[in-house]
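Lecture notes, unit on protein representations.

Consider one protein chain, 522 amino acids long.
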Amino acid sequence: MKIAVEGCAHGELEKIYETLQELEKQEGFKVDLLICCGDFQATRNTQDLSCMAVSDKYKNICSFYKYYSGEKVAPVLTIFIGGNHEASNHLQELSYGGWAAPNIYYLGYAGVVNYGGVRIAGLSGIYKGRDYMRGHYERVPYTEDTKRSVYHIRNLEVFRLKQLSQKVDVMLSHDWPTGITSHGDVGQLLRYKPFFKKDIEENALGSRPAEELLHHMKPAYWFSAHLHCKFAAIVSHGPRKGFTKFLALDKCLPKRKFLQILDIEHDKNKPLTLSYDLEWLTIVHLTNHLLSVKRGLTYMPGPSENERWIFTPSEKEKAHILKRFGGDLTVPLNFTRTVEPYSPDNLASQYAPVSLQLNPQTMLFCELLGVDDPLDLLLQSTSQDSTPNSWAHTPDTPGSLSRTSLSADDSSFLDTSLEDSSRYTGSSTRSLPIKRFSMSLPLPKLSLPDENSEDFLPLTQEPQESSQEFKSLHESEDSTNTNSTYLTASTNTSQTEESEPSQPRKKFKRRNQEFYTSEETT
């Protein structure tokens, strides 16, 4: 199966699909699946733009709305997770995943699906310790604070992923697992991103929960984005425990390495259709009582004699869920538009108020699985104060466990800023004038990279075991695996762009350095 992996999409779906189609035309193959690692920016209209945490000057409608409206159809099945620049009001409709547009599937806050026998898991958002143990309390109208906290990952989703016992083939996260840089060519990384040095030295670059999941799940592949650069590594999990091949990619811009194509073995006896994962469905069902939509702290179960704290399902529990779905786990093609899409000819629609509404896909899913829709719980709230930060955390809400101490998993991620107060008070849901521009990407220059170049990343070849560390994927390796297809679409205009510079590199633009050193990226 040929899978294309995209770093940060940033709304440029047309350019990504055009690049894929050019690759297919030049190399004579067909991509079966596109995976996007966050910052997808599924903005349907100007109201969605106003809910996205990004400076006004960077708010562009881009091209997703064309796929949402039906003007265009995605030419390949696309699966994506959320990042830290998303239309969060849109994604809140699909908290357990669903079709954001025809042939474009969102994995939800966290999710696991199967495609042709390949098991794909994902965790949306980025890690911030102050919000990690809170419920999913945010709703429109967002404040400047909740516009950001809404995409911070929560302990519930990490806890659920830790209950998986069956092998995961592909894992997606937006930010990198903490410590991943020690398994690749960190020197080369620092040559291109020197301002990462302090965070790397302090082991503060990336997500600590993602690091735990990496070593707990031990997936075959792990793909990330967020830091706008290409980085590869191989993580050994010890003798006879396998290894994980990690790859982070850049954002969709000219001269950036934002797209990678590789072969992944799949079960040829299974059709290339998207289906729910039975173990994951059962875990979500069994842990529904842990869901919270309150701003206060929530605790995940730890070792106890009085209540269940391990939710890895039994065969009987999985059989019960399979029966609820009528024995068919195929993801239904039930995309439904819930808002009017952007239209360049309808300027009046730009000033409509932002609202949240239940999505029929999520309603059906929750009914079948017997779980609560977080958005439904929010909308049912009896609070008269529309500012989520003022909601009290009461013991009778779902997931509000009457514990007086943190579990081991929770306390390890608790930082000193957990009880922060809101930093902003103004509403940010006003509609914005649309900026439209055409980003012209040159056609990618395609060739199989030389094995001595940094672009040679034989992810489908097993590394040789030795007493030393695994070689970095950036180093040259002796490969004779002719079945591997590994192409890079970087839209380079120069073949020497990533070579070792003979002169000091230009100083980074101030805006780029601020982006990477801001609290929302690291």
